[in-house]
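DM from R.C. (forwarded with permission)

"hey, sorry to bug you on a friday — could you get me a structure for this? deadline for the figure draft is monday and I only need the backbone to look sensible"
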Amino acid sequence: TVCEKEPSSYMWIYILLGNMLRGIGETPITPLGISYLDDFAKEEDVPVYVACLHTIAMFGPMFGFLLGSLCAKLYVDVGFVDLGSITITPQDSRWVGAWWLGFLISGVISFLAAIPFCFLPKSLKKPVEANNNKTSSGLLENMGAMRKTLTPPKPKPRKLSTMLKGKYFYTSLKKILSNRMYFTFLCCSLLQFSSFIGFLTYKPKYMEQQYGQSTSRSNFLIGLTSLPPVGIGIFLGGLIMKKYKLSIIGATKFAFSMSFLAYVITLLHFFVGCENHVVAGITVSY
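My reply, with the result:
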């Protein structure tokens, strides 16, 4: 028999480029936002503000799962075919939901949310009162002595290629990576996010296979049960750091205790399991 050539599509390239552009646009929000909060807020209030920032960021995936649940109930060719002629239901394994509709809705919302950023001033005046507690008296004296000297000319903005080729970039990168506490925190964050992404990626499919749930139902349950507790935990952590005024060592001990407790509770998943489905030719004979 002659094998027919399967139809191919290059639409995944557009999805890849779209996600790449989305990532480029979203990346400055978190580091620049945290830097802004650290510079302009009081030192004891920074943990709460940062916790609010990350908590709000968790609502995005939560609403994304809920939106995906709604889109999965619609047929993939909605608006292009007569839905009355569709004989299968979302519970059918052949059903394909309108996965592309979520990209359009979230893209329009992101575009509208980005409009207010165009009206922000190019530069902000840094208030001195907000950083009095962060500056030592010796540093203030040095700053007063420096003000008496001639004001140096304003440096010209450097290009990205110049910054990457300069020796200061590699020197700064070496100092950051040689910091044991920062490097340990970086490795810990990589492990945590890797496990968290794997959890969100495969849990919907696990719920579909083991519990017979539809794709729409699985996304709805995950968005409603998994992500809100994470956001609440981040917010409560910021409140605890503000209330007890934890130092770097105190915050490290607190993070270690909570991570160890989460690890112990996660071990309980090994005692929860379901029997495999009966599949002819694999688990049972024909």
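R.C.: lifesaver. Residues 10-121+173-246 form one domain.
me: no worries. Confidence is low (pLDDT under 50) at residues 133-152.
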